[in-house]
Amino acid sequence: MKNRRALREQILACLRAGDFPALAALAGREPGVSAQLLRFFYEPGALLHWRALEGLGHVAAAHPAQVQKVIGRLLWLLNEDSGSFGWGAAAALGEIGRHQISLVKEIVPMFNGFLEEVFSRGPALWGLGRLGEAHPELLAGALPLIEASLGDADPQVRAWAAWCLGKARVGKAAALQALLADDSPVRLYDGGELHDTTVGRVARDALDSLEQAS
Predict the structure, then answer these.
(1) What pTM value is reported for the model?
(2) Which of 104, 137, 166, 207 has the smallest CB count inside 10 Å?
(3) In CATH, what number does 4-213 get?
């Protein structure tokens, strides 16, 4: 077993390279990988933050028992008693569910609560988009809140909501069409990278996904 500093350096190398298979393989040799990944959550705007979220999902696919040990910590970060800002925990839960639904299926209804809180709304939308792309039927209960988020005052939240609907290929086209002229700049993580775009472009992509699914 490596010391924490050496393990962190190996995890960092995997995240910088976007090498999720290597990260999952490392987790097979080192039981502390999942816990160490949570340490990268505390810089929400950074690329490594998002890759750590995605990486945790890949570890869940290969080593579910290891990730199961951090589920409680993620839920605690979303509890108002923790005094935290969630730090992407809702996004991580959705990503885990995408890869290993058995770990989070019972807590999927809790996403409604995450969507109702300002601090967790955006990450929850991203997490639901990742979850919904693999398991769209699980978004049924949250769909009204996701669609309501299309009208959020925060353009980043509007974009995440549109992105979520597009990934899961669910929702009403009319609600997305209302955002086509929204040129508010946003940044989204998708495909292992951060992308600068606009709310309107995200809505256009989501509409294209809905049309392909119909």
Answers:
(1) 0.95
(2) 137
(3) 1.25.10
Per-residue confidence of the chain (214 residues) as pLDDT tens digits? 568 899 999 999 999 999 999 999 999 999 999 999 999 999 888 999 999 999 999 999 999 999 999 999 999 999 866 556 778 999 999 999 999 999 999 999 999 999 999 999 999 999 999 999 999 999 999 999 999 999 999 999 999 999 999 999 999 999 999 999 999 999 999 999 999 999 999 999 999 999 998 7
Q: Print the SS3 string covering the chain.
A: CCCHHHHHHHHHHHHHHCCHHHHHHHHHHCCCHHHHHHHHHHCCCCHHHHHHHHHHHHHHHHCHHHHHHHHHHHHHHCCHHHCCCCCCHHHHHHHHHHHCHHHCHHHHHHHHHHHHCHHHHHHHHHHHHHHHHHCHHHHHHHHHHHHHHHHCCCHHHHHHHHHHHHHHCCCCHHHHHCCCCCCCEEEEEECCEEEEEEHHHHHHHHHHHHHHHC
